[in-house]
């Protein structure tokens, strides 16, 4: 058991429990599950930089609306990430249509998100930008808890939820 007192405000190396709602252009995008706040280690790039930099100093129970520009969120829209891909490279099970969202694997096995922009006779135009690239993000956040990280969490730079590690004993 730890004897440490809980931190009083959001600061680097503090585990933050936060409820949030994300809207873009006034439209709902995402929120934390009711009663299950999002938990993360502040100051370790666990969340997008524009959000992390604007919640410092918040206290438990405090709510704030935070606006994050694209460059501090999911990045600017990059036209170079829009590419023509031969239809022959799609698996037989995939029949691309405009607006379809795909999870692809690159040659190293990394998962890539892509959205089908248009489909031609021999090629499809795919957009590999993050779906929120180029968008201004609005977060309504409420801080619901603050605690000290365990030594292991601090060493790893992320939270081990519900006391479970991940294979490091
Ligand atoms: Zn870890």
Number of strands: 9
Radius of gyration: 20 Å
Stretches with pLDDT under 50, minimum 5 residues: none
Present as ligands are:
zinc ion
- β-strand percent reads 35-45%
The protein's oligomeric status is single chain
Number of domains: 2
Number of helices: 2
Question: Which keywords apply here?
Answer:
Thrombin, subunit H; 4-stranded antiparallel β-sheet; 169 residues; binds zinc ion; 5-stranded antiparallel β-sheet; mainly beta; elongated; 2 domains; Chitinase A, domain 3; 9 strands
Describe the overall structure.
This protein is mainly beta and 169 residues long. It folds into two domains: 15-70 and 135-151, Roll (Chitinase A, domain 3); 79-127, Thrombin, subunit H (Beta Barrel), CATH 2.40.10. 6% of the residues lie in helices and 36% in strands. The chain has two helices and nine strands. Strands 1, 2, 3, 4 and 9 form a five-stranded antiparallel beta sheet that branches. A four-stranded antiparallel beta sheet has the order 5-8-7-6, with no helix packed on it. It is elongated. It starts with 14 loop residues before the first strand and ends in a 13-residue tail after the last helix. The protein binds zinc ion. Zinc ion (ZN) binds at residues 156, 158, 160, 166.
């Amino acid at each position: 058991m730890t004897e440490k007192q809980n931190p009083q405000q959001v600061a680097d190396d503090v585990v933050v429990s936060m409820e949030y709602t994300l809207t873009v252009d006034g439209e709902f995008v995402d929120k934390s599950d009711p009663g299950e706040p999002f938990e993360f280690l502040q100051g370790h790039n666990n969340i997008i930089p524009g959000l992390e930099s604007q919640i410092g100093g918040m206290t438990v129970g405090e709510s704030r609306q935070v606006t994050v520009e694209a460059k501090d969120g999911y990045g600017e829209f990059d036209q170079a990430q829009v590419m023509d891909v031969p239809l022959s490279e799609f698996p037989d099970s995939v029949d691309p249509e405009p607006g379809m969202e795909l999870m692809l694997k690159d040659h190293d096995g990394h998962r890539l998100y892509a959205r089908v922009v248009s489909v031609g006779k021999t090629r499809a135009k795919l957009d590999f930008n993050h779906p929120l690239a180029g968008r201004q993000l609005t977060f309504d956040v409420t801080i619901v808890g603050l605690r000290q990280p365990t030594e292991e969490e601090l060493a790893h730079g992320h939270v081990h939820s519900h006391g479970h590690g991940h294979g490091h004993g």
